[in-house]
User: Which sequence fits this backbone?
């Protein structure tokens, strides 16, 4: 049983009727409903529950944190962002969705701007598998077709991924590294691009399959004790 | 002054009038004509000049080898392929073009199948820069548009590139890792996807700019002595 | 249940009484005896059983191949080396031990010389964990001490590992990248340096722990169909 | 001409006579004196000159920033650390020395704890070249011997280096990834471990050679315009 916490800022859904029509209870509840099963035990937390909702205790009891945020990145307290970063460095897995590329914890973990180019006009996207043996691509064919998505484009200001699993192409001809794996000290991070709030991406079975695969991939074998900076004797005198 | 040798199998141009119309003296001579200047001193060699044309002596006097091949990969002698591989491991640079992904020396260097999907029907390609600070992308804008190219598609059966510089997208929606950097022991290898024989890709100024950048990037600082496997004394008794 | 095949050339043990004293039935049988349990089902094959012993059928029924070879690398038929390489590219895992760095299949997979420096005079080795969260390091402390090992030294002529798990240091002061992970198309390869034939390394519980961890790490999720190079239609017309 | 700025916190040298005996004018002035030549134009800045000493204007006119800090990391203003990080992301090179592994800008760039193990008792170090063709290793033999250095040990809590150039081994048997290359968006970062304040490491000709090589390697081809996050039209309508 993997203990998953889904963070969703939960702002668009309350402000915008079109978004609410797609995700009446919020993106977090849609994901929870679709993903929860005998393998995944899922809790959710939203922006208005911070900072307590992502306390050290919550993170200590989270194997994999899923993150969706967009317009309210700046309202996430800095202390929460640092806490999430530190939990990943200690071994917690993290799956960062869509506009979470600009979230505080993801930027702290990457160390870069995480900028990208973008436009929003209902183009379709093809999410191509470029690493078919990767655990995150299992059960997916050559590509996933999304009838409409926000267009993201290169250059994507992130470190070279340790493993690239998906590349997206869009109707306008843009490309984007849509599925990127990183190891960050003792934790694993997966960034997955699809999921604009105005389209029903998180009801798509293959997208959900990828997210579930990613949660299982990011699941720590065990939580290692954080690396420390000890004063130690000579090894052979230990 | 960088000493460049361009290998072209030079078969399509002799057999097929449409190809000859684009490259009357062969792809190698078009590249030589376009690229030669005060920085690059260029020799050419074709399949019918092998194996002598790529002797150890020739390779020893080549800083960067450019390779174009397609229908005659199997006619390149194994000894030449091994010689090229060994020269790269000793420090020679190599730029592998288009269908050279299936050439013997490239496959020896990658250790993988180098397979890909493909189709050929005149679609356009956009070659996107995903690493704008890379030396190979200098002087290129957001993308290069090629009015027609052969379509290559993922998955591309190569090791994860050390640095990915370009991603191509095609009219049909496919994507391909079009510009891939590898360090192989003491040598550097760049794979660059554009360049189907039936379209005038190697007359395109930006494509030529990329190839020249790649030659300069792959140029060895100096030729290191090949790594050996010596029986040595303890370091502090040296 | 993981189906493991252990290849050992089995030459030293028959020729040299000192080696036979350590491994009376050969390194392969020592590894089989120590490693076989409810998770690992182990077969063995030796040089004099080639090429049939590593037929396509055998490889098709092997999840992870373990390889030990040294003085008889050149007697492994080329066809077997290529068959092993191809099996890895299709998804079989491979754990290459000690002087297997110069084996034909490992060199084919790496694409490089795999050279290193070495000396043999009974120095001790410390095998340090540099990636404590990696599955292959689980159950190991800060380092493994081996009272005596052959000394291997940098530079090691391999591609930059995808993940470096162990670095060895030796009494004479040398260092070596002792545990290196590679993804090769659909298969995973782990190189692990300890295991000279004249010392009882493969009776050491922590070394056996690492080898078992590596087998589990290299175990393919499933055998993917080999990547091919198909002529395909446009994606949206599929 | 490369414009280099050397930051040194310059605290040990003022507080501790033994350090002052080695570096009477500070580590920064020793480095400047040893490194300045017709290729490198060097400025220096110390902790008591911050934040103005590393203003945006200074950084805009710095090609490569060299950083030495230890006991006063926490006194570097956060705004300076962020400014340095942003300058690297825009293309400035950075060479981080010794205990700079725990400096604020390096930790921001890595996104990890950058922890390590350590002890301080005058052991010697051998700094081994594991990538002899790398520009930073040019002019160095198999290893550099330092008669005394602080011992650093794995695990080192950093992302897997893009290229590993040096591995150190110490008298006590420890190992450490002593020379690590990173690309961070448009900038390059090199971490180099030697340089404890109580030993004359920065008077050692080979160490100075490495630092100079690293400065040249990190030197940006040109300062790219920072990646942004633009709202753009379809590519073919541009």
Assistant:
């Amino acid at each position: 049983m993997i203990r998953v916490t889904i963070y969703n800022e939960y702002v668009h859904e309350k402000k915008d009727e079109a978004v609410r029509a797609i995700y009446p209870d919020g993106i977090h509840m849609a994901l929870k409903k679709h993903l929860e099963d005998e393998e995944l035990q899922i809790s959710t937390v939203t922006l208005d529950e911070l900072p307590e909702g992502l306390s050290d205790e919550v993170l200590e009891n989270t194997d994999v944190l899923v993150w969706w945020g967009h317009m309210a990145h700046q309202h996430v307290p800095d202390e929460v962002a640092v806490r999430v970063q530190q939990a990943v460095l200690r071994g917690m897995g993290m799956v960062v969705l869509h506009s979470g590329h600009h979230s505080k914890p993801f930027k702290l973990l990457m160390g870069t701007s995480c900028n990208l180019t973008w436009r929003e006009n209902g183009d379709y996207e093809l999410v191509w598998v470029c690493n078919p043996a990767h655990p995150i691509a299992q059960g997916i064919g050559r590509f996933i077709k999304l009838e409409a998505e926000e267009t993201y484009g290169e250059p994507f200001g992130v470190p070279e991924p340790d493993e690239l699993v998906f590349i997206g192409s869009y109707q306008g001809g843009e490309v984007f590294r849509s599925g990127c794996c990183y190891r960050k000290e003792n934790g694993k991070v997966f960034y997955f691009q699809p999921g604009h709030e105005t389209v029903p991406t998180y009801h798509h079975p293959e997208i959900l399959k990828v997210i579930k695969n990613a949660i299982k991939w990011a699941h720590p074998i065990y939580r290692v004790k954080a690396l420390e900076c000890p004063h130690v004797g000579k090894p052979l005198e230990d």
Q: What stands out?
A: Chain A has a mean pLDDT of 95.
